[in-house]
Amino acid sequence: MADKNHEMWNALGMDLETHDQLCAVLPTAFGDVFLTQDNIPAGMDYFYTVAGDIHGLRPAELIEAQKAGKKVFGTFCVFVPDEIVIAADGIVTGLCGGSQFWVPEGETVLPINTCPLIKASLGARIGKTCPFFRIADIYVGETTCDGKKKAYEILGEDVPMHIMQLPHSKRPKDMENWKDEIEEFAARVEEVTGKKITIEKLNEAIKVINGKRKALSRLYDCRKEKCVPISGRDVLLIMQIAFFDDPQRLSQVVNELCDELEERIRNNVSVVNEDAPRIMLTGTPLAVPNWKLHNIIESSGAIVVCEENCTGTRYFTHSVREDNKTLDEAYAALTDRYMTNINCACFTPNPGRVEDIIRLAKEYHVDGVIDLNLKFCSLYDTEGYFVERELKKAGIPVLGLETDYTDNDAEQLRTRIGAFLEMIREK
């Protein structure tokens, strides 16, 4: 398998020597975070297999699909409507980078005070050390922050780009503008794929993605129970893989896992003691392989039961209407789901996100919230003022943290999280 992967990576024009350095450390990092857990659900085998060959299994499938004439669209954000691509017989793959390994290469073209997620994403492409970045026929960006907007200009010199201009308010005219962006995106997708989007194909694509959302929602519902049948680390890995995997296969394996988890709940089989503090994480997204915070929290005796972020509830909350009669009606339904119901910190004002956090804290019976901010992400850092103020008003313990992808602050984070958990236990 390793030889076959090397042949594939070489054909993609990757820097094999540097990429081998990443491949050498990932198995140890993965093992330390995931394989040290007790009572792992059997249904995690699929996700562990995918993660164990994350630069091999899915990239090989994408290349075979390209040989059959399909086009691959690389995306960075939950605002891009996957349904449009699928309706034109295209394939969507996530592109965000979550490793410090890619950051130095990104810093060769970006300011050091850019958030690590953006630096890692550019570094993965420029350094030729991520197959997903090599495979995609076109990248789809969105204007969620200034750092991304300018980074896309640099990427656009190397790879075809389509940028969706996201309004930063949710007024009626902003909704109309976003609908126009979706329609323009559909036209670009048709151009790239050579396939026409029909209302029948779009409704069917909506059903496919809604199926994935329902499966992931079912997974999260299992975490609301007093008996917690799966760790936060494992759910985070599932969510990260959901951005890359075939959506129908992902739905199937998640539903099979949920069958097992629901049986565990009935039999009171938990992965933690009943008195383990229940933590919700909010803030910036956690792209693969960023597992640091979950690992520290759960190895400190707590359990993460919910993530209010783009690699959490925002990814699957709310379905899209499936019985649209016209393309215009379908684009309006997509606009509603992708604009109204995603409360990203890029919006102003953004009271919906604080309301979501308070609501989710109650639904998941959390004992405390950790508000995580990646360094130099001014959007989430500034909005943390409102998040932490309102949580305190609601009587919900909250801890604000800032970090990056390095392990330099791991012990400091462990100390602060440990003190926070101790405060929760003493309440």
Question: What's the count of strands?
Answer: 8
Low-confidence stretches are none
Multimerization state: single chain
- Please, how many domains? 1
Q: What global shape is seen? A: globular
- Give a short account of the largest sheet: 4 strands, parallel
**Helicity, as a percent range:** 40-55%
**Structure classification:** alpha/beta
Tally of contiguous helical segments: 19
Beta fraction? 5-15%
Distance between the termini: 52 Å
Radius of gyration: 21 Å
The neighbouring-strand order within the major sheet is 2-1-3-4
Q: SSE layout and pairings?
A:
Blueprint (H helix, E strand, L loop, with lengths): L1 H10 L4 H20 L9 H8 L4 H11 L4 E4 L6 H6 L3 E4 L8 H4 L9 H11 L4 H5 L2 E5 L3 H10 L5 E4 L7 H22 L5 H24 L9 H11 L4 H20 L11 E6 L8 H8 L3 E6 L4 H4 L10 H14 L10 H13 L4 E7 L3 H16 L4 E6 L6 H17 L1
Parallel strand pairs: 1-2, 1-3, 3-4, 5-6, 5-7, 7-8
What would you note in describing this structure?
The chain has one domain. The model has no long low-confidence stretch (mean pLDDT 96). α10 (172-193) crosses α16 (327-340). The relative contact order is 0.12. It has a four-stranded parallel sheet with strand order 2-1-3-4, with helices on both faces. The protein has helices at residues 2-11, 16-35, 45-52, 57-67, 82-87, 103-106, 116-126, 131-135, 146-155, 172-193, 199-222, 232-242, 247-266, 292-299, 313-316, 327-340, 351-363, 378-393, 410-426; strands at 72-75, 91-94, 138-142, 161-164, 278-283, 303-308, 368-374, 398-403. The protein has 427 residues and is α/β, with parallel strands linked by helices.
